[in-house]
Amino acid sequence: MQRKESRMVTVRGEGLKDVVVGSTAFFDVDPKGMDGRIDMEVVGPDGSHVPCYVKKLASGLYRAEYRPQQSSKFQSGYIRGRSWMLLASVRAAGQEVKHAIHELDRGQYQVVYHPKLAVPHRIDLKYNGLHTAGCPFEVVVKNPAVGQDVIATGLGLYQSRAGKVTNFVIETLRHPSKEFDVVITGPQGSAVPVRCYQQKDGNLLAEFTAHSAGAYKIEVTQGARPVRGSPYYCQVFDASKVKIEDVGSKPNFVQFVVNRREAGFAELDVTVTSPLGQDLPLEVKSCANEKRL
């Protein structure tokens, strides 16, 4: 292929941007219908050449595959990797928990947050848009008032899935069960049936099923007086109501809209997987309507 012709050749693919050490990366070369041999090389951060395998696809494109073994910037032609970014997410019952990231030393960071709800907190760390090893994971958060005061505990006080039985526990401190009452009101003001079961430890297990998405008010009383923290508001979600809209592709990226207007409030995870089974970096932005992404 002549030098002048080579300027018409285009190259694209995730393998030109951000890749994970030890994983196969690839990029495609479009020769624009021209004949001739295409030479490619991948150079590591230490100047060593990384094996690169090239195959011709049925579409006429050439696909180059390589597997980096070192973390840094690789050279492939004139294209270099971009800066890396560490992002942290802390959520409880689908709600974002305020947190801060402090740099302790070069390459070492501390994530600080203060739990407000006695429910499992989901921690997710992403390095350049990709999950770090072991993420996401959950941290158990207990109510300090357990054993000290009459309270209600459990994720069912704050979040539930439509059509599924959910529950929470009333810590009675051995008070008679007849002293307690639970009233659950749906988003349209309708009463939601609830059942309470006496447990061996003397506590009460309350169960209910929400059939539609929305905010449900849960009132727990002892002798007509609200227990500590009551009323609670449970956000019920319905994942089947989430819609993917406006899928479109541009030269260097693909974009689409996630519509969760009728799905209720809950944490939303979006993952894009390449043909090689690898998670691809992505960016999620809120639309003007906060229920669309």
Automatic annotation (TrEMBL):
UniProt KW Endoplasmic reticulum keyword: no
GO MF entries: actin filament binding
Record bears the keyword Repeat: yes
Filamin repeats mapped onto the chain: 1-141, 142-236
Domain of life assignment: Eukaryota
Keywords tagged on the record: Repeat
Protein family membership: Belongs to the filamin family.
Protein known as: Uncharacterized protein
